[in-house]
Fold this protein.
Amino acid sequence: MAAELFPGKKLLPPASVSHLHRQNESNNNNLHPGAASCCTWQGLYPTVRERNSVMFNNETMADVHFVVGPAGGTQRVPGHKYVLAVGSSVFHAMFYGELAEDQEEIRIPDVEPPSFLAMMKYIYCDEIDLCADTVLATLYAAKKYIVPHLARACVNFLETSLSAKNACVLLSQSCLFEEPDLTQRCWEVIDAQAELALRSDGFCDIDSQTLESILRRETLNAKEMVVFDAALNWAEAECQRQDLAPTIENKRRVLGKAIYLIRIPSMALEDFANGAAQSDVLTLNETNDLFLWFTAAKKPDLLFCAKPRKGLASQRCHRFQSCAYRSNQWRYRGRCDSIQFAVDKRVFIAGFGLYGSSCGSAEYSAKIELKRQGVPTAQRIIKYFSDGSSSTFTVWFEYPVQIEPDTFYTASVVLDGNELSYFGQEGMTEVQCGKVTFQFQCSSDSTNGTGVQGGQIPELIFYA
């Protein structure tokens, strides 16, 4: 396994297996041949599980050995055929099936030692010991030896740790492992947080097939210039993997036909002129035809798709049933309007809908913020224009923020602008938005009167 869950980290550092041996070192001392306690150690452990655990990675009574890992990085691991056969149908066939061979040493070059030990620990001890660095390789081992409960635990671990930084890598791995639920979760993150995912180091680590599937994606929430830059970064990394000099010609060569999946004609003319047109990755004919596409009445035929991506449709959670204004409300003066919320399904908060001036048009400066358990997850200072109506006005975070289910987050805004504005009334503690249920409660951060029943932040804008 060469994949990484978190870019920049070694997948299988040798030190990560040390904790697997600590408990057994003391157990092995008790079981050392000739030790006074070697015939009575069984009485120290009241359950079969505990006695079985003592035998994990233990030479005592071992009747098979595995040489695990690639050449130059192998580790010899003792095993007990009966225990392994009970835990895995593959081991059962290997040791007791019709084609079983009586081998005392079995070489396993395609599984890394820490991941093999993690699988063995589950089989012997009924313990699941996963970490970010080795979980993918452990999933591979669990799939190879058909240990389904461990495989499911690995997938759950990956889904929990899924983020824009590792979603592209996990997408390629989930397809390899045939895990459709994990694949779907990866796409949800990549679509909603496309620009973060495309700019991540992990994007450069994907294979060419996964690259093409992402570039074809209709629902990517990203500017096409970001898609173009990401493809060039991937091409440079691919040149290194193929031991090619990262020249413009080689980048174009490794991209192949995937370059035509980038929807360059849908870029803003300025982005094209200042970016893609000067990248030298496009041929002179392609650059010329694209300039004519942007500027001429008669447009040339292009190999590039000209239709803009649809992106994701945002949804709005309205938490008030009405709004109002009074001659002496709603004032701001630098105070914070805040509300807490939780969802029952994972969503991505993209921004807020805010009220504006109740006495004519006005411009506001808004500091918007999301916190989880008091820790900021997103902040932005942005301006918006209110036309004096009771409509809500949208303010966006720079990137959508992943919101985990069944956890309360705090949405806050500090406004600077016209002192009198509309405010919400008849607030609801629970709002159903499609398949997502929002719950609201008052926030201690709110110093300007906003709460569940009334105030500011009437809408949460999200992707689901």
